[in-house]
Protein backbone atom coordinates (compact mmCIF):
# COMPACT_ATOMS: atom_id res chain seq x y z
CA UNK A 1 0.00 0.00 0.00
CA UNK A 2 2.98 2.30 0.47
CA UNK A 3 3.58 2.09 -3.30
CA UNK A 4 -0.04 3.06 -3.91
CA UNK A 5 0.23 5.98 -1.48
CA UNK A 6 3.30 7.33 -3.22
CA UNK A 7 1.62 6.92 -6.61
CA UNK A 8 -1.47 8.83 -5.42
CA UNK A 9 0.74 11.62 -4.07
CA UNK A 10 2.60 11.77 -7.37
CA UNK A 11 -0.68 12.17 -9.24
CA UNK A 12 -1.80 14.90 -6.83
CA UNK A 13 1.43 16.81 -7.57
CA UNK A 14 0.90 16.73 -11.36
CA UNK A 15 3.04 19.60 -12.78
CA UNK A 16 1.14 19.79 -16.07
CA UNK A 17 -2.13 20.66 -14.30
CA UNK A 18 -2.53 24.44 -14.13
CA UNK A 19 -5.17 24.22 -11.42
CA UNK A 20 -2.86 22.11 -9.27
CA UNK A 21 0.16 24.38 -9.71
CA UNK A 22 -1.86 27.48 -8.82
CA UNK A 23 -2.14 26.12 -5.26
CA UNK A 24 0.40 26.47 -2.51
CA UNK A 25 2.63 23.53 -1.62
CA UNK A 26 0.53 22.60 1.41
CA UNK A 27 -2.75 22.64 -0.49
CA UNK A 28 -1.23 20.72 -3.41
CA UNK A 29 -0.29 17.83 -1.15
CA UNK A 30 -3.94 17.45 -0.14
CA UNK A 31 -4.86 16.69 -3.74
CA UNK A 32 -7.80 17.83 -5.81
CA UNK A 33 -10.48 15.75 -4.13
CA UNK A 34 -11.57 14.67 -0.71
CA UNK A 35 -10.49 11.15 0.16
CA UNK A 36 -13.33 8.65 0.19
CA UNK A 37 -14.00 5.85 2.64
CA UNK A 38 -14.84 2.35 1.37
CA UNK A 39 -18.30 2.33 -0.14
CA UNK A 40 -18.55 6.12 -0.50
CA UNK A 41 -18.40 6.21 -4.29
CA UNK A 42 -19.90 9.67 -4.80
CA UNK A 43 -19.81 10.25 -8.54
CA UNK A 44 -17.79 7.07 -9.05
CA UNK A 45 -14.84 5.66 -7.09
CA UNK A 46 -11.20 5.28 -8.14
CA UNK A 47 -11.75 1.67 -9.24
CA UNK A 48 -14.64 2.77 -11.44
CA UNK A 49 -12.49 5.50 -12.97
CA UNK A 50 -9.64 3.11 -13.71
CA UNK A 51 -11.98 0.53 -15.25
CA UNK A 52 -13.77 2.90 -17.63
CA UNK A 53 -10.46 4.50 -18.67
CA UNK A 54 -8.91 1.19 -19.74
CA UNK A 55 -11.88 -0.98 -20.73
CA UNK A 56 -11.96 0.41 -24.32
CA UNK A 57 -8.71 -1.54 -24.95
CA UNK A 58 -10.52 -4.19 -26.89
CA UNK A 59 -8.35 -7.35 -26.99
CA UNK A 60 -7.59 -7.37 -23.25
CA UNK A 61 -9.40 -9.40 -20.58
CA UNK A 62 -10.36 -6.96 -17.81
CA UNK A 63 -10.42 -9.00 -14.58
CA UNK A 64 -11.90 -7.41 -11.44
CA UNK A 65 -10.40 -8.86 -8.28
CA UNK A 66 -13.17 -8.36 -5.77
CA UNK A 67 -16.83 -9.06 -5.02
CA UNK A 68 -19.07 -9.58 -8.01
CA UNK A 69 -20.93 -6.33 -7.31
CA UNK A 70 -17.84 -4.30 -8.29
CA UNK A 71 -17.79 -5.81 -11.77
CA UNK A 72 -21.55 -5.49 -12.13
CA UNK A 73 -21.42 -1.81 -11.22
CA UNK A 74 -18.78 -0.91 -13.80
CA UNK A 75 -19.43 -3.28 -16.70
CA UNK A 76 -20.13 -1.62 -20.04
CA UNK A 77 -21.12 1.75 -18.54
CA UNK A 78 -19.27 3.63 -21.28
CA UNK A 79 -20.44 3.12 -24.85
CA UNK A 80 -17.01 2.62 -26.42
CA UNK A 81 -17.07 0.90 -29.81
CA UNK A 82 -14.63 -1.60 -31.30
CA UNK A 83 -13.64 -2.27 -34.91
CA UNK A 84 -12.18 -5.66 -33.99
CA UNK A 85 -12.22 -7.79 -30.86
CA UNK A 86 -15.24 -7.73 -28.57
CA UNK A 87 -13.44 -9.38 -25.64
CA UNK A 88 -13.48 -6.10 -23.71
CA UNK A 89 -17.26 -6.40 -23.38
CA UNK A 90 -17.00 -9.70 -21.51
CA UNK A 91 -17.09 -9.23 -17.73
CA UNK A 92 -14.46 -11.11 -15.71
CA UNK A 93 -14.34 -11.18 -11.91
CA UNK A 94 -12.77 -13.38 -9.23
CA UNK A 95 -16.03 -13.07 -7.25
CA UNK A 96 -14.28 -13.45 -3.90
CA UNK A 97 -16.26 -14.84 -0.98
CA UNK A 98 -16.01 -14.91 2.82
CA UNK A 99 -13.31 -17.61 2.83
CA UNK A 100 -11.18 -15.50 0.49
CA UNK A 101 -11.54 -12.56 2.88
CA UNK A 102 -10.35 -14.73 5.78
CA UNK A 103 -7.56 -16.66 4.03
CA UNK A 104 -6.63 -14.24 1.25
CA UNK A 105 -7.62 -14.22 -2.41
CA UNK A 106 -4.22 -14.39 -4.15
CA UNK A 107 -4.46 -18.10 -5.12
CA UNK A 108 -8.00 -17.51 -6.31
CA UNK A 109 -6.73 -14.64 -8.48
CA UNK A 110 -3.93 -16.71 -10.01
CA UNK A 111 -6.37 -19.52 -10.91
CA UNK A 112 -8.72 -16.98 -12.50
CA UNK A 113 -5.94 -15.60 -14.68
CA UNK A 114 -5.03 -19.14 -15.79
CA UNK A 115 -8.64 -19.91 -16.66
CA UNK A 116 -8.90 -16.74 -18.76
CA UNK A 117 -5.77 -17.60 -20.75
CA UNK A 118 -6.94 -21.18 -21.26
CA UNK A 119 -10.42 -20.23 -22.48
CA UNK A 120 -9.96 -16.86 -24.23
CA UNK A 121 -6.23 -16.44 -25.01
CA UNK A 122 -6.30 -12.61 -24.72
CA UNK A 123 -3.38 -10.35 -25.65
CA UNK A 124 -3.09 -9.48 -21.95
CA UNK A 125 -5.02 -9.54 -18.69
CA UNK A 126 -5.60 -6.35 -16.68
CA UNK A 127 -6.23 -7.08 -12.99
CA UNK A 128 -8.15 -4.40 -11.06
CA UNK A 129 -7.74 -4.05 -7.31
CA UNK A 130 -10.92 -3.25 -5.33
CA UNK A 131 -11.64 -2.03 -1.81
CA UNK A 132 -12.12 -5.46 -0.22
CA UNK A 133 -9.02 -7.12 -1.67
CA UNK A 134 -6.88 -4.08 -0.88
CA UNK A 135 -8.08 -4.04 2.72
CA UNK A 136 -7.29 -7.75 3.26
CA UNK A 137 -3.81 -7.15 1.81
CA UNK A 138 -3.84 -9.12 -1.44
CA UNK A 139 -0.63 -8.30 -3.36
CA UNK A 140 -1.89 -8.18 -6.93
CA UNK A 141 1.48 -6.94 -8.23
CA UNK A 142 3.22 -10.11 -7.01
CA UNK A 143 0.47 -12.34 -8.44
CA UNK A 144 0.57 -10.53 -11.79
CA UNK A 145 4.35 -10.84 -11.97
CA UNK A 146 4.20 -14.58 -11.24
CA UNK A 147 1.39 -15.07 -13.78
CA UNK A 148 3.32 -13.17 -16.47
CA UNK A 149 6.31 -15.47 -15.98
CA UNK A 150 4.13 -18.59 -15.88
CA UNK A 151 1.93 -17.93 -18.92
CA UNK A 152 4.29 -15.85 -21.06
CA UNK A 153 1.80 -13.03 -21.63
CA UNK A 154 1.40 -9.66 -19.90
CA UNK A 155 -0.68 -9.61 -16.72
CA UNK A 156 -0.96 -5.97 -15.64
CA UNK A 157 -1.91 -4.85 -12.09
CA UNK A 158 -4.22 -1.82 -11.91
CA UNK A 159 -3.87 -0.74 -8.28
CA UNK A 160 -6.78 1.69 -7.83
CA UNK A 161 -9.08 0.49 -5.02
CA UNK A 162 -12.21 2.58 -4.64
CA UNK A 163 -11.42 4.08 -1.25
CA UNK A 164 -8.31 6.02 -2.36
CA UNK A 165 -10.38 8.69 -4.10
CA UNK A 166 -12.89 9.55 -6.78
CA UNK A 167 -13.31 8.51 -10.41
CA UNK A 168 -10.94 11.13 -11.80
CA UNK A 169 -8.12 9.91 -9.55
CA UNK A 170 -8.81 6.40 -10.85
CA UNK A 171 -8.43 7.66 -14.45
CA UNK A 172 -4.96 8.93 -13.62
CA UNK A 173 -3.94 5.80 -11.68
CA UNK A 174 -4.95 3.77 -14.73
CA UNK A 175 -2.68 5.99 -16.79
CA UNK A 176 0.17 5.38 -14.34
CA UNK A 177 -0.30 1.62 -14.75
CA UNK A 178 0.05 1.96 -18.53
CA UNK A 179 3.19 4.03 -18.09
CA UNK A 180 4.71 1.57 -15.62
CA UNK A 181 3.85 -1.73 -17.30
CA UNK A 182 2.70 -1.28 -20.91
CA UNK A 183 3.95 1.77 -22.83
CA UNK A 184 7.41 1.21 -24.28
CA UNK A 185 7.38 -2.59 -23.99
CA UNK A 186 6.94 -3.37 -27.71
CA UNK A 187 8.01 -1.92 -31.06
CA UNK A 188 5.83 -1.20 -34.13
CA UNK A 189 6.48 -3.01 -37.40
CA UNK A 190 6.99 0.33 -39.18
CA UNK A 191 7.06 4.02 -38.31
CA UNK A 192 6.33 7.10 -40.41
CA UNK A 193 6.81 10.86 -39.97
CA UNK A 194 3.02 11.10 -39.70
CA UNK A 195 2.44 8.94 -36.59
CA UNK A 196 0.39 10.44 -33.75
CA UNK A 197 -1.16 9.36 -30.47
CA UNK A 198 -4.62 10.45 -29.39
CA UNK A 199 -4.85 10.41 -25.60
CA UNK A 200 -8.05 10.57 -23.55
CA UNK A 201 -10.32 9.59 -26.44
CA UNK A 202 -12.64 6.62 -25.79
CA UNK A 203 -14.46 6.21 -29.14
CA UNK A 204 -17.83 6.79 -27.50
CA UNK A 205 -20.58 5.79 -29.92
CA UNK A 206 -17.84 5.49 -32.57
CA UNK A 207 -16.71 9.13 -32.47
CA UNK A 208 -13.10 8.30 -33.32
CA UNK A 209 -14.32 6.83 -36.61
CA UNK A 210 -15.78 10.22 -37.58
CA UNK A 211 -12.34 11.80 -37.28
CA UNK A 212 -10.10 9.00 -38.59
CA UNK A 213 -11.11 9.31 -42.30
CA UNK A 214 -10.02 12.95 -42.30
CA UNK A 215 -6.68 12.06 -40.71
CA UNK A 216 -6.26 9.28 -43.27
CA UNK A 217 -6.89 11.79 -46.06
CA UNK A 218 -4.26 14.09 -44.56
CA UNK A 219 -1.83 11.18 -44.55
CA UNK A 220 -1.71 11.08 -40.74
CA UNK A 221 -1.62 7.67 -39.04
CA UNK A 222 -3.09 7.12 -35.58
CA UNK A 223 -0.31 4.99 -34.11
CA UNK A 224 -2.24 4.55 -30.87
CA UNK A 225 -5.46 5.81 -29.34
CA UNK A 226 -5.48 5.63 -25.56
CA UNK A 227 -7.79 4.03 -25.08
CA UNK A 228 -10.67 4.06 -27.58
CA UNK A 229 -10.77 1.10 -30.02
CA UNK A 230 -7.19 0.30 -28.95
CA UNK A 231 -5.34 -2.99 -28.99
CA UNK A 232 -2.81 -3.89 -26.31
CA UNK A 233 0.12 -3.91 -28.72
CA UNK A 234 -0.78 -0.45 -30.07
CA UNK A 235 -0.62 1.00 -26.56
CA UNK A 236 2.66 -0.85 -25.92
CA UNK A 237 4.40 0.77 -28.90
CA UNK A 238 2.75 4.20 -28.59
CA UNK A 239 6.09 5.66 -27.46
CA UNK A 240 7.21 5.74 -31.12
CA UNK A 241 4.69 8.43 -32.14
CA UNK A 242 5.96 11.78 -33.37
CA UNK A 243 3.24 13.91 -31.71
CA UNK A 244 0.15 13.56 -29.55
CA UNK A 245 -3.25 15.16 -29.04
CA UNK A 246 -4.72 15.30 -25.55
CA UNK A 247 -8.53 15.16 -25.72
CA UNK A 248 -9.40 14.95 -22.02
CA UNK A 249 -6.68 16.48 -19.84
CA UNK A 250 -8.79 15.95 -16.72
CA UNK A 251 -8.38 12.20 -17.10
CA UNK A 252 -4.99 11.47 -18.65
CA UNK A 253 -2.76 14.54 -18.57
CA UNK A 254 -0.15 12.49 -16.71
CA UNK A 255 0.26 10.14 -19.70
CA UNK A 256 0.79 12.99 -22.17
CA UNK A 257 3.21 14.85 -19.89
CA UNK A 258 5.35 11.81 -19.01
CA UNK A 259 5.51 10.62 -22.62
CA UNK A 260 6.76 14.06 -23.58
CA UNK A 261 9.43 13.86 -20.88
CA UNK A 262 10.49 10.27 -21.58
CA UNK A 263 10.13 10.01 -25.33
CA UNK A 264 10.09 13.67 -26.51
CA UNK A 265 6.56 13.44 -27.92
CA UNK A 266 5.08 16.98 -27.97
CA UNK A 267 1.35 17.27 -27.30
CA UNK A 268 -1.45 19.82 -27.33
CA UNK A 269 -4.94 19.79 -25.84
CA UNK A 270 -7.74 19.96 -28.35
CA UNK A 271 -11.32 18.98 -29.04
CA UNK A 272 -13.17 17.22 -31.84
CA UNK A 273 -16.47 18.92 -30.91
CA UNK A 274 -17.58 21.92 -32.97
CA UNK A 275 -16.39 23.28 -36.30
CA UNK A 276 -13.78 25.74 -35.06
CA UNK A 277 -12.29 23.33 -32.53
CA UNK A 278 -12.22 20.48 -35.02
CA UNK A 279 -10.43 22.62 -37.61
CA UNK A 280 -7.97 23.93 -35.01
CA UNK A 281 -7.20 20.36 -33.89
CA UNK A 282 -6.41 19.26 -37.44
CA UNK A 283 -4.15 22.30 -37.91
CA UNK A 284 -2.33 21.64 -34.63
CA UNK A 285 -1.78 17.98 -35.50
CA UNK A 286 -0.29 18.99 -38.85
CA UNK A 287 1.85 21.73 -37.28
CA UNK A 288 3.32 19.43 -34.61
CA UNK A 289 4.15 16.75 -37.16
CA UNK A 290 5.84 19.26 -39.48
CA UNK A 291 7.83 20.59 -36.52
CA UNK A 292 8.97 17.00 -35.86
CA UNK A 293 10.14 16.47 -39.44
CA UNK A 294 7.09 15.67 -41.58
CA UNK A 295 7.00 17.29 -45.08
CA UNK A 296 5.63 20.86 -45.08
CA UNK A 297 2.98 20.10 -47.71
CA UNK A 298 0.98 18.44 -44.92
CA UNK A 299 -0.13 21.94 -43.87
CA UNK A 300 -1.52 22.70 -47.35
CA UNK A 301 -3.40 19.39 -47.53
CA UNK A 302 -4.88 20.05 -44.10
CA UNK A 303 -6.13 23.52 -45.05
CA UNK A 304 -7.74 22.18 -48.22
CA UNK A 305 -9.62 19.52 -46.25
CA UNK A 306 -10.75 22.08 -43.65
CA UNK A 307 -12.11 24.46 -46.32
CA UNK A 308 -14.05 21.65 -47.98
CA UNK A 309 -15.51 20.24 -44.76
CA UNK A 310 -16.50 23.62 -43.31
CA UNK A 311 -18.24 24.62 -46.54
CA UNK A 312 -20.15 21.32 -46.62
CA UNK A 313 -21.15 21.75 -42.96
CA UNK A 314 -22.69 25.19 -43.43
CA UNK A 315 -24.67 23.95 -46.42
CA UNK A 316 -26.19 21.26 -44.19
CA UNK A 317 -26.94 23.87 -41.49
CA UNK A 318 -29.28 25.94 -43.69
CA UNK A 319 -32.49 24.09 -42.62
CA UNK A 320 -31.62 24.47 -38.92
CA UNK A 321 -30.32 28.05 -38.57
CA UNK A 322 -33.70 29.75 -38.17
CA UNK A 323 -35.12 26.95 -36.01
CA UNK A 324 -32.25 27.00 -33.52
CA UNK A 325 -31.27 30.66 -33.48
CA UNK A 326 -31.50 32.02 -29.93
CA UNK A 327 -32.37 28.66 -28.37
CA UNK A 328 -31.23 28.68 -24.73
CA UNK A 329 -29.27 25.64 -23.60
CA UNK A 330 -28.39 24.45 -20.09
CA UNK A 331 -25.26 22.26 -20.27
CA UNK A 332 -24.69 19.91 -17.32
CA UNK A 333 -21.51 18.01 -18.07
CA UNK A 334 -17.84 18.58 -17.27
CA UNK A 335 -14.22 18.34 -18.33
CA UNK A 336 -13.45 19.10 -21.96
CA UNK A 337 -17.15 19.12 -22.91
CA UNK A 338 -17.81 22.08 -20.58
CA UNK A 339 -16.15 24.40 -23.13
CA UNK A 340 -15.92 22.41 -26.37
CA UNK A 341 -19.70 21.89 -26.60
CA UNK A 342 -20.26 25.56 -25.65
CA UNK A 343 -18.18 26.58 -28.66
CA UNK A 344 -19.97 24.10 -30.90
CA UNK A 345 -23.47 25.28 -30.00
CA UNK A 346 -22.63 28.98 -30.19
CA UNK A 347 -21.41 28.52 -33.76
CA UNK A 348 -24.92 27.62 -34.92
CA UNK A 349 -26.59 30.50 -33.06
CA UNK A 350 -27.65 28.88 -29.77
CA UNK A 351 -27.21 30.61 -26.41
CA UNK A 352 -25.68 28.88 -23.37
CA UNK A 353 -27.40 30.02 -20.17
CA UNK A 354 -25.24 27.86 -17.90
CA UNK A 355 -22.56 25.19 -18.02
CA UNK A 356 -21.31 22.82 -15.33
CA UNK A 357 -17.64 23.07 -14.34
CA UNK A 358 -17.62 20.50 -11.52
CA UNK A 359 -15.09 18.30 -13.37
CA UNK A 360 -13.33 21.09 -15.26
CA UNK A 361 -9.77 22.34 -14.90
CA UNK A 362 -8.65 25.96 -14.51
CA UNK A 363 -7.87 26.02 -18.24
CA UNK A 364 -11.38 24.72 -19.02
CA UNK A 365 -12.92 27.55 -17.00
CA UNK A 366 -10.74 30.15 -18.69
CA UNK A 367 -11.84 28.89 -22.11
CA UNK A 368 -15.49 29.15 -21.02
CA UNK A 369 -14.95 32.79 -20.04
CA UNK A 370 -13.35 33.48 -23.40
CA UNK A 371 -16.36 31.95 -25.17
CA UNK A 372 -19.18 33.26 -22.97
CA UNK A 373 -17.65 36.42 -21.49
CA UNK A 374 -16.64 37.26 -17.93
CA UNK A 375 -20.27 37.02 -16.79
CA UNK A 376 -20.47 33.39 -17.86
CA UNK A 377 -22.85 31.35 -15.70
CA UNK A 378 -20.54 28.53 -14.62
CA UNK A 379 -22.21 26.07 -12.28
CA UNK A 380 -19.91 24.22 -9.90
CA UNK A 381 -22.48 21.92 -8.36
CA UNK A 382 -26.10 22.65 -9.30
CA UNK A 383 -28.67 20.78 -7.21
CA UNK A 384 -31.56 18.96 -8.90
CA UNK A 385 -33.97 21.51 -7.43
CA UNK A 386 -31.99 24.38 -8.98
CA UNK A 387 -31.92 22.62 -12.37
CA UNK A 388 -35.66 22.11 -12.17
CA UNK A 389 -36.29 25.77 -11.34
CA UNK A 390 -34.09 26.99 -14.20
CA UNK A 391 -35.93 24.78 -16.68
CA UNK A 392 -39.39 25.47 -15.25
CA UNK A 393 -38.86 29.24 -15.28
CA UNK A 394 -37.97 28.98 -18.99
CA UNK A 395 -34.44 30.27 -18.48
CA UNK A 396 -33.44 27.35 -20.73
CA UNK A 397 -35.23 25.72 -23.65
CA UNK A 398 -33.38 22.40 -23.50
CA UNK A 399 -30.97 20.62 -21.17
CA UNK A 400 -27.93 18.67 -22.36
CA UNK A 401 -26.61 16.34 -19.67
CA UNK A 402 -25.99 12.76 -18.61
CA UNK A 403 -28.67 10.17 -18.05
CA UNK A 404 -28.90 10.78 -14.30
CA UNK A 405 -30.30 14.30 -14.87
CA UNK A 406 -32.87 13.44 -17.52
CA UNK A 407 -35.74 12.98 -15.05
CA UNK A 408 -35.41 16.58 -13.87
CA UNK A 409 -35.94 17.85 -17.41
CA UNK A 410 -38.80 15.41 -18.00
CA UNK A 411 -40.48 16.51 -14.78
CA UNK A 412 -40.18 20.12 -15.91
CA UNK A 413 -41.75 19.05 -19.25
CA UNK A 414 -38.68 20.32 -21.09
CA UNK A 415 -36.61 18.67 -23.85
CA UNK A 416 -33.45 16.79 -22.86
CA UNK A 417 -30.55 15.32 -24.85
CA UNK A 418 -27.89 12.87 -23.66
CA UNK A 419 -24.39 14.35 -24.08
CA UNK A 420 -22.42 12.10 -21.73
CA UNK A 421 -20.63 8.78 -22.06
CA UNK A 422 -23.78 6.65 -22.28
CA UNK A 423 -25.01 8.37 -25.46
CA UNK A 424 -25.84 6.44 -28.61
CA UNK A 425 -25.05 9.18 -31.15
CA UNK A 426 -21.54 10.28 -32.15
CA UNK A 427 -21.00 14.05 -32.04
CA UNK A 428 -17.31 14.40 -33.00
CA UNK A 429 -15.98 16.01 -36.16
CA UNK A 430 -17.90 17.84 -38.85
CA UNK A 431 -20.40 15.03 -39.43
CA UNK A 432 -20.88 14.65 -35.67
CA UNK A 433 -21.74 18.33 -35.33
CA UNK A 434 -24.45 17.89 -37.96
CA UNK A 435 -25.79 14.96 -35.92
CA UNK A 436 -25.75 17.01 -32.71
CA UNK A 437 -27.66 19.90 -34.30
CA UNK A 438 -30.20 17.52 -35.82
CA UNK A 439 -30.76 15.73 -32.49
CA UNK A 440 -31.25 19.04 -30.66
CA UNK A 441 -33.78 20.16 -33.27
CA UNK A 442 -35.59 16.82 -33.05
CA UNK A 443 -35.76 17.06 -29.26
CA UNK A 444 -36.98 20.69 -29.28
CA UNK A 445 -39.67 20.22 -31.90
CA UNK A 446 -40.90 16.81 -30.81
CA UNK A 447 -44.74 17.00 -30.67
CA UNK A 448 -44.74 15.24 -27.29
CA UNK A 449 -43.94 18.50 -25.49
CA UNK A 450 -47.08 20.19 -26.81
CA UNK A 451 -49.13 17.24 -25.58
CA UNK A 452 -47.64 16.94 -22.07
CA UNK A 453 -48.00 20.69 -21.46
CA UNK A 454 -51.74 20.65 -22.14
CA UNK A 455 -54.04 20.89 -19.11
CA UNK A 456 -55.02 17.55 -17.60
CA UNK A 457 -58.57 16.32 -18.24
CA UNK A 458 -59.73 17.28 -14.74
CA UNK A 459 -58.37 20.82 -15.26
CA UNK A 460 -60.34 21.12 -18.48
CA UNK A 461 -63.47 20.04 -16.55
CA UNK A 462 -63.04 22.98 -14.25
CA UNK A 463 -61.85 21.20 -11.11
CA UNK A 464 -58.68 23.35 -10.91
CA UNK A 465 -58.50 23.14 -7.13
CA UNK A 466 -58.10 19.36 -7.28
CA UNK A 467 -55.45 19.72 -9.98
CA UNK A 468 -53.55 22.19 -7.80
CA UNK A 469 -53.64 19.78 -4.87
CA UNK A 470 -52.33 16.98 -7.09
CA UNK A 471 -49.47 19.16 -8.29
CA UNK A 472 -48.47 20.10 -4.74
CA UNK A 473 -48.06 16.42 -3.88
CA UNK A 474 -45.19 15.97 -6.35
CA UNK A 475 -41.69 16.68 -5.09
CA UNK A 476 -38.45 16.92 -7.02
CA UNK A 477 -35.86 14.76 -5.28
CA UNK A 478 -32.20 14.19 -6.14
CA UNK A 479 -32.29 13.60 -9.85
CA UNK A 480 -35.82 12.26 -10.10
CA UNK A 481 -39.28 12.66 -8.58
CA UNK A 482 -41.57 10.98 -6.12
CA UNK A 483 -45.32 10.88 -6.51
CA UNK A 484 -47.26 11.04 -3.24
CA UNK A 485 -50.78 9.52 -3.34
CA UNK A 486 -53.16 12.29 -4.36
CA UNK A 487 -56.80 12.92 -3.52
CA UNK A 488 -57.85 11.57 -6.90
CA UNK A 489 -56.07 8.24 -6.35
CA UNK A 490 -57.74 7.76 -2.97
CA UNK A 491 -61.28 8.65 -3.94
TrEMBL record:
Q: Which Gene3D superfamilies match?
A: Nitrogenase MoFe cofactor biosynthesis protein NifE, C-terminal, Nitrogenase molybdenum iron protein domain
Q: Which PROSITE patterns does this UniProt record tie to the protein?
A: NITROGENASE_1_1, NITROGENASE_1_2
To which pathway does this protein belong?
A: Cofactor biosynthesis; Fe-Mo cofactor biosynthesis
Top-rank taxon: Bacteria
What keywords appear on the UniProt entry? Nitrogen fixation
Q: What does this protein do?
A: This protein may play a role in the biosynthesis of the prosthetic group of nitrogenase (FeMo cofactor).
Which family does the record assign? Answer: Belongs to the NifD/NifK/NifE/NifN family.
Q: What is the protein name given in its UniProt record?
A: Nitrogenase iron-molybdenum cofactor biosynthesis protein NifE
Tell me the organism: Sulfuriferula multivorans
Amino acid sequence: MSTLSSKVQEVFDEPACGKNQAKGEKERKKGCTKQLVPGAAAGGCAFDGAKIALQPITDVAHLVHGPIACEGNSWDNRGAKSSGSSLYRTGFTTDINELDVVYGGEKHLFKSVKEIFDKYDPAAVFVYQTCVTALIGDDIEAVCKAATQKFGKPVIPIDAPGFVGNKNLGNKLAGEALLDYVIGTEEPDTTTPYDINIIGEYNLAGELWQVKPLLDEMGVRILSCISGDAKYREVAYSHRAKAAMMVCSKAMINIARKMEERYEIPFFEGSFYGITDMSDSLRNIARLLVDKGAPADLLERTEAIIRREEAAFWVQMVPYKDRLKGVKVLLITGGVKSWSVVSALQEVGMEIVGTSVKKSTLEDKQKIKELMGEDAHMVDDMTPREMYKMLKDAEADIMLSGGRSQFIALKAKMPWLDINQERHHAYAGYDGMVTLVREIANALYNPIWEQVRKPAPWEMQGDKKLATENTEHTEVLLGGFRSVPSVASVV
